[in-house]
User: What shape does this take?
Amino acid sequence: MILSKIQSLTGLAEAQIYSLLSYFTILLFLYLLKVAIMRIVWKNTNDPEKRYKGRKTINTVYYIFIILIFFAIISQSGEKITEIFGFLTLGISFALQDIVKCFAGWVYIVWKNPFSIGDRVEIGDLKGDVIDIHFFRFSLMEIGNWVDADQSTGRVMHLPNSIILNSPIANFGQGFKFIWNEIPVLLTFESDWKTAKKILLDVANKNSEHISAKAEKYVRESSKNFMIMYKNLTPTVYTSVKDSGVMLTIRYLSNPQKRRTSEEEIWEEILIRFAEYADIDFAYPTQRFFNNKLECKEFVQ
Assistant: This one.
């Protein structure tokens, strides 16, 4: 009775209806199997990385099987059922355009690889570490915002994959895995800036020597895909003059996720080293009265 009603509503032959029922039965079986395997993985490991990779692998295999079974049934079920699925797919594509765009975004992520799990990225005004990539959305552990120096805020942002199709993407670690960071150090005009510059260069070399060696290797590898032609990857110190003193700017390579830590280590050593010199002082907003006679300046009529 139920079978005849389905036939009258759909116009499908009995064999085609059984094919559809077989498809949905297999879907239910695959879903239950996926849940069972997930539970086994969760039960046998507490490692977050292994759990994540296990879940992603199981989901990928699950969806591949669904697609293969779908096309297998379509190819064996005749024109009528093919037409029904065709109209159904067309209707869904119009009704769910955003979802289709998100899936297209996922294809772009897999194909062009603008970022992967663990990368630090900036998309539009949003910054964070990629912690998950799904068919329709990806997730970031937010950095910055009200927290200084690109550290985590603790919030997880879920973004539709479609956002990458019309937004600029900056990958902090793609290329040669490091970023250039700068630390400005402002000294008074009376300070011995030459000695200070030598100290800053020594501190920078000491704290980033191992990174410079690694960066050379990554530059050679990335030159296969990008036109990256850095010749000098060692730290340097630039000199300039500001309104209130001599500016010495340290430029060095840093791991994107450890920028704040590297700054802290460098600043602490600078404070310790500068404390040994009486003729090196930091400049800060102050007021000064100038007297030519007391300072042995020649008075000009």
